[in-house]
Amino acid sequence: MPQPTFVHIGYHKTATNWFQRLFYPAVRNFKYVHRKRARLAFTEDHAFQFDPAVAFARLETPAPEGLILCEEELSGNLHNGGLHGYLSKEVAHRIKQTLPGAEVIIFIRSQTEMIGSVYKQYVKEGGTHSPRRYLFPYDYLDPHGFSPKKSPLFAFQHYDYRLLIDHYRTVFGPEKVHVFLYEEFSRNHTDFMARYIERFGFDVDLAAAPNTRLNVSNKKFSLWVARMMNRFAYRNVIDKHYFLNVPGMYRLRGRVVAPLLDRIAFFSGPARPRDILGPDIVRHIEDYYRASNRLLAEQLDLPLAQHGYPV
User: Fold this and answer.
1) Coil, strand or helix: which one is 32?
2) Which of 30, 228, 235, 277 could lock 281 by a disulfide, CB 3.0 to 4.6 Å apart?
3) Which of 80, 41, 85 lies closest to 60, judged by CA?
4) CA 10, CA 124: separation in Å to the nearest integer?
5) The whole model's pTM is what?
6) Residues paired with residue 103 on neighbouring β-strands, in sequence order
7) C-alpha distances in angstroms, 207 versus 69, 193, 198, 236?
8) Residue 298 located in a structural domain
9) Helix (H, G, I), strand (E, B) or coil at 7
10) Bridge partners, 70 (sequence order)
11) Domain range holding 174?
12) What DSSP line would sit under 39-78, residue for residue?
């Protein structure tokens, strides 16, 4: 009986970096396909030019079985809502055409924590806008020049997990889609990973994949300084405002200034998502996702309420 192939599609901000760099490459009885090849195979081609044979060749593997792919961009970019959902929806069909027997792994995270973390990532990548301006961009833009279909920016719909999960369950079959909570992974890493390894039959020494924090959160002060410094670097996100591009500023801010400020800014607490977003935005998030989360919890028997998801 051939081995299954697993495609871990994200979401962003759910430890995919840890799985890509430390865990999946250590699995001995499956071949890990580097994320760059997964991205090249499934996200680069124009919609009318996608060829599953070409996509498979880009994975650089002789057979479609016994593989592990892990790339969060397969669920759609976190800053543009998966191109208004078009990319997120299309990629599922591309994976099915290329790896028809694949099993899909999806990690989700409480939307308040997720969106707060996404905003911090936006600043880390060069963003300059406030949380409100970033999360509600079309309230600030001329509707005749900008719309989600013309210029996809942040979209709350992207984090309505039930939409994407239901789509993958339709395309691959319910038994082929496996949904996990990031909170269960982060709160009891060792026990969670023991169950995860057993469930999928991975041959791996868990000690070889340590619980190392690869992305350390900034403090509030350094987050504010980063936003200011980003006004002097053009990269990396589209939705921002900068005065001029100072060569090397982005690299200096990320590698030197922010880590240094985090060490010396003892007066500044951690940049917790709820503190960053503020009570009004948190209420909006909770109201927006509550009904859909409740349906998802019932549908998949997920303990969302226990882990802070609005239900």
Assistant:
1) strand
2) 277
3) 41
4) 19
5) 0.93
6) 6
7) 21, 11, 15, 36
8) yes
9) strand
10) 8
11) 6-215+279-307
12) HHHHHSS-TTT--HHHHHHHT--S-SSSEEEE-GGGG--T
Q: Dihedral sign for Cα 251, 252, 253, 255, please.
A: positive
Burial of 175 (0-12, 13-18, 19+ CB in 10 A): exposed
The tokens describing 275, both together, are 């503190």
Alpha-carbon distance values, 4 to 30, 149, 196, 213 (Å): 9, 37, 15, 29
Q: Where are the alpha helices (DSSP H) in the chain?
A: 16-18, 35-43, 52-58, 81-84, 86-98, 111-124, 131-135, 161-172, 182-187, 189-200, 220-229, 249-252, 258-264, 273-277, 279-300
Are residues 181 and 100 part of one domain? yes
Residue range 47-58, pLDDT digits in tens: 999 999 999 999
Q: Which amino acid is at 270?
A: P
One domain, residues 134 and 249: no
Looking at the fold, whether 125 and 236 belong to one and the same domain comes out as: no
The pLDDT assigned to 212 comes to 67
Q: Which residues of 292-301 are buried (b: 16+ CB within 10 A; e: fewer)?
A: bbbebbeebe
